Amino acid sequence: MVSTHRATIQDVAVLSGLSICTVSRALRHLPNVSEREQEQVAGAAAKLGYKALAAASRPEGGRTGSLAIVAPTATSWFFAQAVEAAEEVLGDSGYDTVLISLRNQDSVRRQFFADLGNLAQRVDGLLLLTMDLVPGEVAALEACGLAIASVGMENVPWDNVAIDDEHAAWQATQHLLGLGHWDLAVLSSNEHPVATETPRFRGFKRALDEHHLTVHPDLVVCAGPSIDDGRRAMAELIARGASPTAVFAHCDEAAFGALKALREYGLSVPKNVSVIGMDNHPMSGFLGLSTVAQPVADQGAFAANLLCERLLNTETPHQPSNHLLDTKLIERKTTRHKR
C-alpha cells in the first residue's frame, strides 16, 4: 500500500534534529544557519522527499499578496514570539503581513467578525493564534473564503499547529506529585467560561486522578496570563486560608506573579511552597522557575508554512491537519521534595 502521508517541515526537523525555525531558514537559504545545519536539513529533506517553498513564492494568482495574523493580544511574550516567526516565513514567501490584535476586548472581537467580508477583500489568508472560537465564529471563518491556518487551537476545520496542552499540564502536575506534594493548587486560565474546561486543567486533574486524589475547589482559582493576574490569583488563594504545598500555574507569567505574592506574604519558594509554570518564558531561567517548555516560535513558523502551502496548492486539496509539537519538563529551583 502506498503511503499518503505528506512530508512536512516538522518531519524534516525531527529527522535533522533541528528546530522548525532553523529548518525553515535552511530550506530558504536564509542567514544565521551554519553550513553543517544546511547540510543536515538538505539531507533530511531529500530523504523524505520534502519540497521546500521557494523564497518569494507567492502565487501569481494571489489577489492581494497580503495575509493577516490575528492574535488575542499583541503584547504578551507568547504572541510576540509566534508572530515574529510567522512573519519571517510569510515575508520570505513574498507576502505582506497585517497584524490584527483583538486587544483582549469583546467589542474588538465582535467588530473583527463583523468585518470579515471586508477583510477578505484585502488579504488572501488568515493565521489565527490561540483564539477560543464559538461555533458561529468557526462558521463565519469557513464562509469567508480565505485560506486559514492556526496555532494552539482545538478541533478546527483547517490546518493547526499546537502542543498537547493536557499532556503538558499532566507533566507539570506529575512532577509535583513525584516530589511528594499532595495538596496542590492550580492557577487556571480564565479564557473559558468554566475553568475546568481548559485542556491544561484537564491535564492537572488527570494527574491527580491517577494518584486517587481529587481537585479541592478551594485550591482552584482563575488567573489571566499576566504577572499581575498571577499575583492577584495567588493572593486570593492565601486570603482563602488555603495552604497548598505546591502550585501549578497555567503559564509562566502567571507563575511569576505567584512567586511575587508568596514573597509578599512571607512564604519562601520552594521551602514553603513549590511553584511550576508552563511555556519556558525567557525570564524563567533567570528566576529559576521550573516549567514545561513549549516551542512557541516553531509553532508560528510551522503554521505559516502550512498556510503558504495551502495558497500555493489550491488545485490539490487535502484534509486539514493537526500537528502537535513536543513539550519538555525543565526542573529548576522553584520545586523540591516536600519536607
Automatic annotation (TrEMBL):
<dbReference type="GO" id="GO:0003677">
    <property type="term" value="F:DNA binding"/>
</dbReference>
<feature type="domain" description="HTH lacI-type">
    <location>
        <begin position="7"/>
        <end position="59"/>
    </location>
</feature>
<dbReference type="InterPro" id="IPR010982">
    <property type="entry name" value="Lambda_DNA-bd_dom_sf"/>
</dbReference>
<dbReference type="InterPro" id="IPR028082">
    <property type="entry name" value="Peripla_BP_I"/>
</dbReference>
<dbReference type="Pfam" id="PF00356">
    <property type="entry name" value="LacI"/>
</dbReference>
<dbReference type="InterPro" id="IPR046335">
    <property type="entry name" value="LacI/GalR-like_sensor"/>
</dbReference>
<dbReference type="Pfam" id="PF13377">
    <property type="entry name" value="Peripla_BP_3"/>
</dbReference>
<keyword id="KW-0238">DNA-binding</keyword>
<keyword id="KW-0805">Transcription regulation</keyword>
<protein>
    <submittedName>
        <fullName>LacI family DNA-binding transcriptional regulator</fullName>
    </submittedName>
</protein>
<keyword id="KW-0804">Transcription</keyword>
<dbReference type="InterPro" id="IPR000843">
    <property type="entry name" value="HTH_LacI"/>
</dbReference>
